[in-house]
Design a protein that fits this description.
This protein has 221 residues and is of the alpha/beta class. The chain contains 8 helices and 8 strands; from the N terminus they run E-E-H-E-H-E-E-H-E-H-E-H-E-H-H-H. Helices cover 43% and strands 19% of the residues.
């Protein structure tokens, strides 16, 4: 994709980047810029791949679930990609990626692109995705959006950072794509959060009421 060129009349390095610029464009650049531009072009491909994987998700039980895609990259090469429910109903994308497709691969130092913040809680004996990433010693996790579930929001990112894993968010344009794909899930979680807050506030305010007040309330309905 990228290579340095030198004109016979000019010793300054030039860059040919057909995919990035849409045409053969010789542009004088400083040598240290070449690596960062190459990484930027490749990273866009990894982001797009994770989003494309998320579009393959299908609800396994008729309920609203997130669309999640994940991609593992090491030394600039895609090791594997996965999506939620790919191998079995309800299987998280990171679980499919790490345990089903790359169980025997060394992932130390690699980068994981995932469209949704890795979970921090699962029903026993399942292991949360954030912990799986920590156990596999990945070097960096790039997240498409934080999980709107208030039980998880921000906790996955924090768990990864606490384990010394670099965390980044998708750029704004890619994040908007992820949020649009998951608009139903985001709305569902927002509404569930409101119901949860109302319920807890009601319980807190009513727990000290005398029993006869409860009878009065019931009989009034």
């Amino acid at each position: 994709m990228l290579r340095q060129l030198r004109k016979p009349t000019d010793e300054a390095p030039f860059l040919l980047c057909r995919e990035a610029l849409g045409r053969n464009c010789y542009r004088p650049v400083h040598p240290t810029w070449v690596g960062s531009l190459a990484l930027s072009v490749l990273e866009d491909e990894f982001l797009d791949l994770s989003i494309a994987e998320s579009l393959k998700c299908r609800s396994e039980d008729g309920r609203i679930h997130p669309n999640v895609g994940a991609v593992a990259v090491k030394d600039g090469k895609v090791l594997a990609s996965a999506y939620r429910g790919e191998t079995a109903p309800g299987d998280h994308a990171e679980y499919v990626l790490l345990e089903k497709k790359l169980a025997n691969e060394s992932l130390a130092g690699c980068t994981i692109y995932t469209t949704l913040e890795p979970c921090t809680s699962r029903n026993y004996p399942k292991v949360p995705c954030a912990q799986r990433l920590i156990d596999r010693k990945v070097g960096r996790v790039v997240i498409g959006q934080l999980d709107p579930n208030p039980i998880i929001t921000g906790r996955g990112k924090l768990a990864l950072r606490s384990a010394g894993i670099i965390t980044d968010l998708y750029p704004e344009s890619a994040m908007k794509k992820v949020e649009e794909i998951n608009r139903h899930f985001n709305r569902f979680q927002a509404e569930a959060g409101v119901i949860s807050r109302v319920s807890s506030d009601f319980i807190e305010s009513a727990k000290n009421r005398r029993l006869d007040h409860w009878y009065e309330s019931v009989n009034r309905v």
